[in-house]
Amino acid sequence: MEEMSWSENYKLSWDDFKGQPNQDTDAVAVTASGITFSYSINKRDDKVYGFKTLVKAFFYPEHSWCKSDQVDTHVLGHEQLHFDITELHARLFRQRIAALKPHEGLAKTLQDMHSAIDSQLAEMQNTYDVQSEYSINVDGQKKWMDSIAVRLKALNKFKSKG
């Protein structure tokens, strides 16, 4: 499956939305994005002494779509922010991981953290759509864009390395 990593140097274009549009919905575009997570734990004599993690924010072109006759740059900004919200949660996840110390039960801790961040991500994506009325509410959209920009900047040291 094709995937694109989040990068502060690249903004989505409508060409990135390669999926088949769903004609049975009022939606004019859908962004499919998510966080992938993997880890390895170093153990010696059943004692955990270190770990590595990999957290990535991805956009999935084949599962993202738009009705090209009904979209514009404002809607594209709305879709980009969905991807930025995914990146924000990847940064929050990395920040939480950075605070972890090696311990017994680390695998479960990491898996639980991943589940929690996925839930928080889904909740924020839904709240964003409701409060911006899927981009129709221009003021609501602007507030979200400003808020996410500030939050991304605050977590800059945890950003995805494009």
UniProtKB/TrEMBL annotation:
Pfam families listed in its UniProt record: DUF922
Domain of life of the source: Bacteria
Name of the protein this chain belongs to: DUF922 domain-containing protein
Organism: Olleya marilimosa
